[in-house]
Amino acid sequence: MIKKCLFPVAGYGTRFLPATKSMPKEMLPIVNKPLIEFGVEEALAAGMDRMAFVTGRGKRAIEDHFDKNYELEDQIQGTAKEQALAPIRELIDKCEFSYTRQKEMAGLGNAILTGETLIGDEAFGVVLADDLCVNDGEGVLAQMAKLYKQFRCSIVAIEEVPAEDTNKYGIICGEEIKAGVYRVTDMVEKPEPEDAPSNLAIIGRYILTPDIFDILRTTPAGKNGEVQITDALLQQAKDGCVMALKFKGNRFDCGSLDGFVAATNHVYGRYQKKTP
Ligand code: G1P
Domain containing 166: what range? Predict the structure, then answer.
């Protein structure tokens, strides 16, 4: 039912310098698959087949990744190596890709607003590729899409984090209406532990209703002088409804070195299990 998924991919990835000096951070591989490909697979598994990217300078490799590479493909045609391209070929066949550029780095809220031209007037998913979610059952976005069908309002994915980490995330609090499902009453972007309303952190998966764009247009710069999606969502929660879902699965913060290494080990372990 939700067809489009937005990928804000304009960020610099300074925590991974020098690797990200001339390469998009979203192209960093977890074993042999770029982070962004995991995100696109998760969106497709949730029924979203229109992938919309908000890019910036130096991000061409992402566009090239979701396109044919005639020379390479010609070279390996008919060899065993061709098999390695099967998953990305399937994605390219099944999805449509569109791109627009963010004019300035003015925060996640601004990046999402920039995507309005690709999304239009419909509910959509958002994937922050830095947050890698892997699990055996239903993907996180698919779990959220189910909840959307029921509530028809914006949804954020949440998990519990240690109290000292609240200043790395948007933090929500709300009324738990059934196991793992909260009606959001407050949300704060990266509060210090003493100011945090809970330890329930938003991870990089959202389903947003299109009225978010009008709210974002008038949302003033917040934390770190940037337009924050968390502030716009709080407005939606106050005016109507925003739900938060404690998702099932593993999530790795691949924007940090520790998370990246943990994700690599986890995914490598999964590969080994599949290989007899
Ligand atoms: C963004 C959001 C934050 C959220 C986080 C999830 O922050 O602003 O609310 O918790 O993504 O990864 P960023 O990590 O881009 O600083």
Answer: 4-274
Residue 99, C-beta contacts closer than 8 angstroms, at least 6 positions apart: 52, 53, 55, 63, 118
Q: Which atom of ligand 1 is nearest to the CA of 253?
A: 12
Number of domains in the chain: 1
Q: Which runs of consecutive H residues, i.e. helices, occur in the chain?
A: 35-45, 60-65, 70-76, 86-94, 108-114, 116-119, 140-151, 211-218, 229-239, 257-274
User: What is the chain's length?
Assistant: 276
Q: At residue 5, what are phi and psi to the nearest 5 degrees? A: -135, 130
Residue among 12, 54, 108 to mutate when testing ligand 1 (max atoms within 8 A of CB): 108
pLDDT tens-place string over residues 115-171:
999 999 999 999 999 999 998 889 999 999 999 999 999 999 999 999 999 999 999
Mean pLDDT of the chain: 94
**What CATH number should be reported for the domain holding residue 160?**
3.90.550.10
Q: Tell me the two tokens of residue 55.
A: 């890019």
